[in-house]
Sequence to fold (596 residues):
Amino acid sequence: MASYLEFEKPIAEIDSRITELESASGEDVDLSGEIEKLREKRATLLGGTYARLSPWQKTQVARHPGRPHFRDYVANIFDDFVPLGGDRYFAEDEAIIGGLAKLGERRVVLIGHEKGHDTESRLRHNFGMGKPEGYRKAIRLMDLAGRFGLPVVTLVDTSGAFPGIEAEERGQAEAIARSTEACLALPVPMVSAIVGEGGSGGAVALASAERVLMFEHAVYSVISPEGCASILWRTAENAPDAAEAMKMTAQDLLKIGVIDRIVAEPVGGAHRAPEKACASLGKALEEELETLGELDSTRLRAMREERFLRMGEG
Amino acid sequence: MSWLSRVRNSLPFGAKRETADNLWIKCPACDEMVFTKEYDENARVCPKCDHHGRIGTDMRFAILLDQGYEVLPTPQVREDPLKFKDTKAYPARLKQARAKNPHPDALTNAAGAIKGHRVVLGVQDFAFMGGSMGMAVGSAFVHGVDRALKDRVPYVICTAAGGARMQEGILSLMQMPKTTVAVRRLKEAGLPYIVVLTDPTTGGVTASYAMLGDVHIAEPGCLIGFAGARVIQNTIREQLPDGFQRAEYLHEHGMVDRVVHRHELRDELAMLLDYLSPRAAA
Ligand SMILES: [Zn+2]
Fold:
């Protein structure tokens, strides 16, 4: 059965009531009228709840384990994905996946974080927390994209770059800085989509693009609400306040020009209808690449530079 | 002129009236009590144990630059664009920081020379809200680079930051690509970009302009890292190795070219600039 988020309790209650009535329904009792009424009530409640999610609630939705992940986007949006592995220096990091793919008729280089969907895969993908070798692989693939004229699509979904001893030893900061630099240097179109969590430097390293899209209930921030709260409020319990204060929702970020476009999610969030969510994203990505396809490399780089130089100043 | 007399000549702090409270200072490393005057004249390097204490922007300019440098104005940015409030409103925090600091935000540039080599020097000051990178820091960095591009001189940055300015939320994160655009412009113009890492340099500053230098110099013992030690410990639940994230550790792991004593920094930079400065084709 679907797992409900804390704030979805009223919806969960109606759902279990519906299930009850359905099992009580038999040849001699007809409860279909009542069930229908409950279904309508549920639809209204779900729509209303999701239209008014607080930043903290959106954070929960963005982290929902049932939300589509990189492999789902690959399966539903792209064709003939050819993963390419390794940074050529140290290792293959499966927290960041990349390779060649077709988006409709268009050949692209696709890069993104993969969080995993069960215990085994979460461990293998390190919960989507990239290590230096993951970012160096991204740099390598961006370089490849640039040389062979393939547009770059990135799907960002990470709580942040991996904080660990070996990551520091191998230059996590340097890898992130170079990955950001590689985005900015691309002579080909680049479109990034924040599809779940856009966590700090680990996200921006793959999202320094001329067009940045964001799912309706995704979040993008400089630090997690819990991290921000424990520093500024001295307790993680104030995470909802931190989420509010940091302006991390797609709606807020569109207003201040940090993102360019919001991709609508199915009612109740992408996790309730992953295929529908993938379809909307695929369509948006194609439209963006179509527009950018007209521009030459000088113009693309200039757009990217302008975007970040004037960030927050408009 | 020796660094000693240069410090003495331009110490704004020297004018402070000496009281029992500020006459002595306790070295944070060896706990020895040192005369404040002696400590300042030693560029805040402990005369007993050589620990490099944190220094302000003006002292940094004084020990590195030839006399007669020009402090560049800090660019104006939108203040408190998010109307951020934690236990205190952001403008109140800014006001408090400004009352205690000589410059309006955490990064200040000066145009001058190091032993005759013209440069623009940026200095980040940990005393101003932990040196944190917000729009003012990002813009000051870009302005410093713009001036270097205009004058066709190298840009040298002394980094110090606890990380991003959280009160500016995502806009502080956006300073990472923003400053990286500026670094790229220096590189395209063929101008040297030298990073001097000072205590502490962490978070988004490390993961952007601090790690993109042509040469990385670090002061001995300074903390340099991406993630904070506490965050790492909470994630991996392991003991951190000795000297973790210190300058020498980064040197050992290939992220820093040279670890240089503060007293030798001016000579070091002059030497590097002599090698790297753009010269007319011979
Ligand atoms: Zn000492």
